[in-house]
Amino acid sequence: MGKEVIKINISKEDDHVFHRNLNLEYPIIDRAEGVYLYESSGKKFIDGCSGAVAANLGHGVTQITDAMNQQAKKAAFVHSLRFETEVLYKLSKEIIDLAPKNFSKVFYTCSGSEANESAIKLVHQYHKDRGNEFKRLIVGRWQSYHGNTLGTLSIGGDLKRRTSFSALLYEHPHINSPITDNEDMSLTNYIDELESLIKNYGAENIGAIICEPIVGSQQGAMVPPYEYFKRIKDICKKNDLLLIIDEVMTGFGRTGKNFAIEYFDVIPDIITFGKGVTGGYAPLGGIIVHNDIVKAILENSNGIFKHGFTYSGHPVLVATGLAAINYYKSNDILYNCNIQSEYLLKGLNQIYDKYKMIKSINGKGLLIGLEFVPNRDHDKDFKASEKVSERLNQISMENGLVLYPGSGAKKGKLGQHIIIAPPLTVNNTEIDEILEILDKSLLKLQKEINYN
Ligand code: PMP
């Protein structure tokens, strides 16, 4: 946009980046502005998924980049084992203000995976220091993702990511999370599954259950029934389990509330976060801890959380988070998220009418999933090998739209979906553009796969 385009010529042989797929060539992004990414060749992409549902505030927000710069100049690094900084103090206060009531402390990491690892360790320490050292297992759910480290992969259910490393994973048990269109199972079945798991393993061996409030990458933003988390919480109370809510994808306004667990009127014990806290401007994550756990750490562990990273509370990262939260608040991003969500859903409903391949539209706020089947009038699923969501992603990338493809465990198979999650700053015109390219891409995909 009026700026000089710098052409970078990178040949495949010269590219020493260990890409996720060494056989692919990746477009080189030269600059980004608002909801757009620009390739060095000049090609433009509209960011329909905020990168990895992280760039919640769009690109090029100078209030944030200035704050990063200023903090880097003031004090780029101090070790949080010995020092606190003003930005660390202020960000923690802001996060506690946004969190549900009775949360009182925030511990920082550099990613969502590290946040969930930290939660696993806090749960273990909490129980052990209270004399319950065998409460070691964390109940995960098959339709969930909590990160790519060994601990978080073990509690998550990402079959594709788990398979190659299954020999290294810890044996944490799993249940299914509610699938909106699974006529075979009522809410009670899902709750019964948890109760019988606790009976089998023994409550004395289980420390916590971890759930995404609205499952992102593994379930395409399906929203569980309102009662679900209340019933999970009751079971937790009965069996002395902690409830960890993973808000790495959903937190900081993504679903139209500060935290998605607010939709269910349930207070968890630990909330984990990442992505949106800085709007993707810096790698920051963390855990928000309920006061009851803080009290237990003070009483039973001499106030010491036996855990930490070199970069926990890194001043530049937390200054970025602080500037991002100020931006969320001063621009009423939550309001924009909710009105743009309505607009997006209206357009998606029209697209739904055109394609039998779309089985359902799910989600809240600007975390919207489309679930795909060959034809919604027939009870059949795509085969995982057809990689339908990945193919849609490729076609839409060619057309200049970035989406977040996914596939999650569904009745023992992999369901296919994509997530549409543009920056929460998106406007109507940009949503129209997303819808137009999506429509065009679905038409091409439909022809290619030759269903309907
Ligand atoms: N939890 C959830 C719900 C996520 O969506 C993700 C990332 N997609 C993670 C954890 C892991 O976060 P990170 O990639 O920052 O480690």
Structure description:
With 452 residues, the chain is of the alpha/beta class. It has helices at 50-53, 62-75, 86-98, 112-129, 150-155, 159-163, 187-201, 227-239, 291-300, 315-330, 333-354, 388-398, 428-449, and strands at residues 29-33, 36-39, 44-47, 103-109, 137-141, 174-175, 206-211, 242-246, 270-273, 285-290, 358-364, 367-372, 401-402, 404-410, 413-420. Helix 3 crosses helix 10 (315-330) and helix 12 crosses helix 13. The radius of gyration is 22 Å and the shape is globular. The two termini are 41 Å apart. The mean pLDDT is 94. The site of 4'-deoxy-4'-aminopyridoxal-5'-phosphate (PMP) has 16 residues, from helix 4. 4'-deoxy-4'-aminopyridoxal-5'-phosphate is lined by residues 52, 111-113, 116, 145-147, 212, 216-217, 246, 248-249, 274, 285. It holds the Pfam family Aminotran_3. Keywords: Aminotransferase, Pyridoxal phosphate, Transferase.
